[in-house]
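re: ur question from yesterday

yeah so i grabbed the chain u mentioned. its 111 aa long if i counted rite. heres the sequnce exactly as i have it in my notes:
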Amino acid sequence: MEPRLASGVWVAAYLARLRLAAVPAYVVQKGDATAGAVVVKVATLDGRARAMQRRFDFAADRRVWDVLAEGEEEAVDAVLSRERSRDRDLWVIEIEDRAGRSLLEEEGLAE
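ran it thru and got these structure tokens back, copy pasting raw so excuse formatting
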């Protein structure tokens, strides 16, 4: 298994990458700088949203991004609120992009 970047370092690099692509994003909740899990919410500004979290896929032997919640933004926010109340180390990054871009499928972010 390859070493993981500290969460704070990954978040800073991800936000910089989003900024370079002109994708508006901000940190809603700052988690543990070393080992906090990261959730990325993409709001498409039409009342809909998608939240993704990273998990380890044992069958593929790699880390992947999975959809945690998707649908009406209010429902996605409710799921994130529950997650935040359970995990104080959780990072929540929110993106506002009509096209729904997260860049998570790109090299260096996909796995």
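noticed a couple things. The mean pLDDT is 91. also Residues 7-96 form a domain with the hypothetical protein tt1805 fold (CATH 3.40.1530.20).
anyway ttyl
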